[in-house]
Amino acid sequence: DTAVSQTPKYLVTQMGNDKSIKCEQNLGHDTMYWYKQDSKKFLKIMFSYNNKELIINETVPNRFSPKSPDKAHLNLHINSLELGDSAVYFCASSPTGTGDFSYGYTFGSGTRLTVV
Amino acid sequence: EDQVTQSPEALRLQEGESSSLNCSYTVSGLRGLFWYRQDPGKGPEFLFTLYSAGEEKEKERLKATLTKKESFLHITAPKPEDSATYLCAVRSNTGFQKLVFGTGTRLLVSP
To answer: Dihedral (C-alpha) A60, A66, B85, B32: value to the nearest 10 degrees?
Structure first.
């Protein structure tokens, strides 16, 4: 059973389109994250939700909107896609509070977004 | 602002040739330094967490050490299956549970 699963794995779309990436975790964690990894492998945090509440919102264009229907799911919707949005997007989860953070995050396998 | 710099960017080793990867960091109160391994097309996988200077952790051919300014990932007698990108990340006293990552070191071990 996959701990953190993302769909789709690959996404090719045209500029100006709107797309969504879905993420689900079955680890019982209460915090979830979205990270963007560029072509140089640099991972940068975008958002974090704790129990459906937005906790971290880095400097990200407002074309990106996260949605967390419950603590096991965190989706990412992107409006009006641009060429520069091409990257690999990773979802991750972790426990919070009294949970054990000694293992950091558990990552999904990523969604490679290509905007043409 | 928390910063992590990893060197070298890329490292090519022969099987059995030991070496070290470096992670230098600047952080406002370290609450943990994390090492991850990332294989092509996959998400990062957890390796180690270090909390205080002088701490060391080992797993098979890997050993991670920590000082007040940097961490090293020592690879002893590497095998081709150790080829991957190794990522370092820090968690500070601020920013909830945000991990700040370096750009990684791409390791290639040839037979």
So the answer is: 90
Q: Do A56 and B89 touch (CB under 8 A)?
A: no
Q: What is the dihedral of CA A38, B41, A109, B98, to 10 degrees?
A: -30
* Burial state string for A21-50 with b = 16 or more CB within 10 A and e = fewer than 16: bbbbbeeebbbbbbbbbeeebbbebbbbbb
Q: Contacts of residue A44 in chain B, CB cutoff 8 Å? A: 101
Residue of chain A whose Cα is closest to the Cα of B51: A102
Using one digit for the tens of pLDDT, what is the confidence trace for B5-43? 999 999 999 999 999 999 999 998 898 999 999 999 999
What pLDDT band is residue A99 in, cutting at 50, 70 and 90? low
Q: Are B49 and A102 inside 8 Å of each other by CB?
A: yes
Phi, psi (degrees; rounded to nearest 5) at B51: -115, -30
pLDDT at A98: 55
**Number of residue pairs across A and B with CB atoms under 8 Å?**
63
CA A78 to CA A97: how far, in whole Å? 30
* Nearest CB to A105; choose among B96, B99, B100: B99
